[in-house]
Amino acid sequence: SILTDVSCLQTSSSSRDVRRFKDVRKEFERGSENLEGALARNAQAPRGKQHEVEEASNALLNARRAFRSEALDYVLEINVIEAKKKTDILMAMLNLMEAQAQLFQHGHQSLSELDEYRRKLNEEHTQFVLNAAREKRDMEQRHAAIKKKDVSYDDSIMDFNADAANGIAMEGYLYKRASNAFKTWSRRWFSIQKNQLVYQKKFKDQPTVVVEDLRLCTVKPSTENERRFCFEVVSPSKCCLLQADSERLQQAWISAVQNSIASAFQEHREDPHSPRQRCSSMSTSSLSGGGGGGGGGGGGADQENKGCKALEEVQAIPGNKQCCDCGEPAPDWASINLGITLCIICSGIHRSLGVHFSKVRSLTLDSWEPELIKLMCELGNTVINRIYEARIDEITIKKPHPSSPRYKHFHFHFDLLFGLCRPHTK
């Protein structure tokens, strides 16, 4: 009868715990929806209306505080139910064994062998009940202590880690503006991995690539729209406008993209004996060389020598002794933002496309600063062609030859730079 009374009490307590668990879960889900709505309103607050910005920020702070509190309540109820599983299951076993003992005690002599076992189980049950009560008290005390603290802080920022075990250097939620006519904003999960910027609509979706190769892009803050905390990731073929949840997250993402670009260049550098490294050392030494005597009369010769050095150093990079686009030997022109060498015909076409796509400079006629030579030595024709022409065989674009007509040169450059051959990282 005592076991029956205890069982009834525990059943009633378990039912109350389950009902409370369901109620707390509903409050948690409601708080989660309120937080999402507050985040959206905070992101939509226009920069020029300070009172709307303050209202959205205060609403977000209150929503985050309420969500954290309800999340803590939810975790507590989960832990309480998990802790009571042992006692409930053990009590059910004891009730079953007692019923069997009463039913077969007159006809089944072997049941008496279970007496000692039942005694041990009762002792274990008592100990489990004591332990569960102690754990529940400790959890409630920790829960109360945590709720007294300020839980409205923003802990959503993540640090850039180029050596992460899963290959993801940075990840988190960002708003992305669509490129269609409506310019709608969507919240997506972005990540930087394998020198690419990608995003997912849902956790199990296949990632969508925004930037194929971070070496070909730049990142900068954007202040030309109504939304706050925006920044742009610009590549030769497109521009992607993104928005973070705060200024701190905006700066973190800008730094992460910049660090990823630097890491991508660092990974592709060759050994110290390569032409590229020799080019860097020669460019650095030119800052202090060539001026041992103090007399005049050598300005023109020095300029000519510097032009020859720039030509020699840039052409020493693999693939730079032929035009990057048509293969013409001994090119003496270069695109300083793409890092390639060009013949005079292809350089003229690059000029016609505009400086926002290609900035052309002569290797022999123009002056070359040592820093600019080092920049040219970072890439080279071989690397750039592996990126931009990786999928040229899959489409109808035909690479021109030195003897090809000028219009074929132009069509090839236009299609390549405007994205029909998508850059590839392989």
Name its key features.
426 residues; alpha+beta; three-stranded antiparallel sheet; 12% strand; disordered C terminus
Kindly summarize this structure in a few lines:
The chain is α+β, with helices and mostly antiparallel strands. It is built from 10 helices and 10 strands.
Protein model, in words:
- The protein is α+β, with helices and mostly antiparallel strands.
- Helix content is 51%, strand content 12%.
- It has 10 helices and 10 strands.
- It has helices spanning 2-44, 50-104, 115-147, 247-267, 275-285, 299-315, 344-353, 370-376, 381-388, 406-417; strands spanning 168-177, 185-193, 196-200, 208-211, 218-222, 230-234, 239-243, 333-335, 340-342, 360-362.
- The strands form 2 sheets. Strands 4-3-2-1-7-6-5 form a 7-stranded antiparallel beta sheet, covered by helices on one side. A 3-stranded antiparallel beta sheet has the order 9-8-10.
- Helix 1 runs antiparallel to helix 2 (50-104) and helix 5 packs antiparallel against helix 8.
- The model is unreliable at 270-278, 280-299 and 420-426 (pLDDT under 50).
Mean pLDDT: 78
**What is the overall number of helices?**
10
Helix content: 40-55%
Terminal CA distance reads 76 Å
What's the arrangement of strands in the largest beta sheet? 4-3-2-1-7-6-5
Structural class: alpha+beta
Q: Which series of helices and strands comes N to C?
A: HHHEEEEEEEHHHEEHEHHH
This entry's quaternary arrangement is single chain
Low-pLDDT segments, ≥5 res:
270-278, 280-299, 420-426
